[in-house]
Fold these 3 entries.
Entry 1:
Amino acid sequence: MNLIKFKPTEYKLENVKTGRIFDDAGWTLSDPEGGDPALVRAVYASTRFNPRSDLKGIYRYADWMPVRRTLRHSCAPVTYKSKGLAKHLGLNNLYITFSGWNPKLGAKMSTCSFKETEAFSVCARIDKKEKRTLIVQSAGNTARAFAQVCSDNGIPVVICIPEDNTHDLWFQKKLDKCVKVIAVPHGCDYYDAITLGEKLAQDPGYFLEGGAKNVARRDGMGTTILSFAEKTGRIPDAYFQAVGSGTGAIAAWENACRLAADGRFGSNDMRVYVSQNAPFTLLYDSWKACSRQLADITPELGRRQAEVILAKVLSNRKPPYSIAGGLYDVLLQSHGDVFLASNDDIMYWLLQFRNLEGYDLLPAACVAVSSLAQAVEKGVVGKDEYIMLNCTGGGTLTARAKGYVFKTPDLVLSPDLPAEEIIAKVSAL
């Protein structure tokens, strides 16, 4: 697939707070003119949603992805109208957008996670001539997705991940040597992995992926709602997703705005409902306090909470909540809300969903299913509304039945080490 001739997508960047539009210098993550913290958003030359028949996988949506090229083995999210779960909840227009492994549905994300949507977009934004090594910080699923995509396409990457989450680093075959994994020790969390990556990035031979600030990450994730729009011909009335950072929900809102501007998919009246795995409730607590500022949480408490939740990928102590264009603004503008699901809720809906829809979900996606059920019970959504349930991963039982290998960390380093020592140890690999 990377052998076809591909013209890089035309776009500019916009400061969502000031409206200033400017050129992308190549890996721009923020407005170079500074000012108050704000996300930048891609403004595409193509203002109409036109899935491309000449491209396969996720790159069918390349007109709304800031990419320079296409990569091998990509797969787009799949949207279908639910029968089993819809009947169980009494909903007439429930659509499930699934990103994972279920060939019967046409879903063939080998890592079983919608984080592949990020990886195929972010890595395709990288110039082929780039000499530096990419740094990706992850709580688990993102690490697996980027490791696989970079391995398949020969893109050098260093992945920073908590050692407690390295059980997520399973693959169908051994990874290429271009992929290095650096773990922070047992008891550390995702925030510590972020700290490690930031110290490594002080060396000019490395560069940070950028997380929510990277327009390629957001617009890759935003292909989920493009899948829904392509299937239904409209913007959903309500959108449900489990979140750690909230980046996927931000991405969905941004693409809903693009679809509304297109004019063929209705107005953007979509309500965004996100959910977290209790007791890690940082976003829930912040939103329920009616505050743009994040609630206070000590590193020690955050680590303890991250240790006990089943959906460990939802434990981000540094989410893009307060920043202009971030999750707070999305929830406010969409008249949305935040729900919670316990570990028991996850187990209940993991079993229920498999019985009702015929395949297994990852724990985070079960959190989203739980929040939808709560919304139905509370009358938050109507039975005839068009609802998008973003199931962000699943199919591991089927995928791993084919056999798999684990990637063990190449190094385990404390995030408290000086940057110089971290750089020296990683560069020596």
Entry 2:
Amino acid sequence: MQPNMQDMMRSVQKAQQELLKAQDELAKATVEGTAGGGVVTVVCTGNFQFQAVKIKPEAVDTSDMGMLEDLILTAINDATKKAQAMGESKMQNSMKGVNLPPGLGLGF
């Protein structure tokens, strides 16, 4: 039995609405990436807009700026991983209960 075209279109529209809602929530949600036991913290949204970098004074050693640079990169990478995981989870959760026909999955 073939799926009803109206039901299929409703499912696709519902999926689009749920994805837009999830994207909006990701834009508002934030994650923190840290390095060096919290001496460097980076804040970004779920859609990878970096908002803040916080560096505690004990992280600054002018004779070893390379260490500070490494800590900042580590914090950015940590925040990016967390934002990506949050996005994947949000997208998967938004699609629960949406019945798309076989082959129309969204691949996450």
Entry 3:
Amino acid sequence: MKSDIVVVGGGASGLMAAYAAADCLVGAGSGAQVLLLEKMPRPARKIMITGKGRCNFTNVKDWTDFSSHLRANAAAVRPAFYNLTPEALMRFFDEFGMKSVVERGDRAFPESHLASDVVDTLVLACNSKGVKIMCGAEVSSAGRRGEKFRLELASGESCECAKLVLATGGLSYPATGSTGDGYAWAEAFGHGVVRTFPSLTALVPVGYKQPAGPDPALPRHVDRAVPLAELGEKLCGVHLKNVGMSLEVDGNTVDSEFGDVDFTDGGIEGPLGFRFSRRAVKALLNGGRAALVLDLKSAVGEEELSERVRQLYSEIESDPRSQRIREKERCRILLGKLMPWDLIPGFTAMHPRIFFVSRLRNGRQLVKVNLDVIARALKNWRFPLDGYVGYERAVVTAGGVSIDGIVPKSMESRLVPGLYFCGELLDIDADTGGYNLHSAFATGALAGLNAAKALLAAGA
């Protein structure tokens, strides 16, 4: 097979790169061909599961706010962002028939809230510009032969092209086809690869999962399929809104935020869990200690909260309905006034010092409630971390092809002319909220555009 431009990888960045390249060529009146090779039976499998199938495809913040959510190499994304802004991306989808809506946190979704609409629109856009999409076309190796790039396919076929765009993605959600193929090819071309690790993933507290054997490839990795322990069973399914959380690394608080938290079958997730996951995973991989600290009452200080707890308990004790119930049941009523009911079993399990036994003169034992412990625990509920869920369910891969070898204004290799990189394959990752997908679309669009421009400049 021969083509002028080949894009390897049919995800968000690859489809956008193919479209941008073909759009530029068609606009210039060129008959040059763009070929997209995707190893899975259908393109953009990962987009289909983004945002629980709703696909938060961008975030409409301006660059100053947007860039604050990029966790690596924000400056390298800047040219791509301005080449394809969030507003321009929404116009692109609108022009091909997909309406968008902007929701809380400046997150943009397809109006239908169906990720399949994003995929269908991208494929439609590529088809409208004559892009040839080949699915089931797994590339086994990529190299250079003279002035051309040569790709060997698992089927035994080969392909040559003048310009090559690598958009193979990272390692997260390998079932969608992201198995890190592009890293080895990048290294073969002379590019460095920054150590990769899972990000935007569940953090697993000590005692949350049943014991499992170690993973030598990823220290502290706890596979999502490992069954929950008793503590995990008590917390799984709890959703907390508007709480405070901080991350401790080796005993020092390194980050604090306010927002929502989810306890799932994987561990601690939700916006706050995901936000801290990158730094926590990196600390654990480096042999450090990490803990999440939950503040259920961040609007009040501990002294004021302690007084409030005592006042509530006094009201419960003086209530005639409480006279015949045990102290533990009174404590449960108290906790029900301070937190969601479904959180109480996990809270009491992790704070056994809430109760203490007092011995009477006659030898009887009386269970009492330690109100000071409750107040402190509400403000400082610590979850030492045992590990994290790996690539099998991590939203994004941190690390990747080093930006040092890439020209940010074009996404072209500094080492190999005609070679371009984009998307999650690069050492670029961000918070949850549309930032990662937009970065993929934007870097893909810039890579494809410049591959086409270089082809035209060469006389194609």
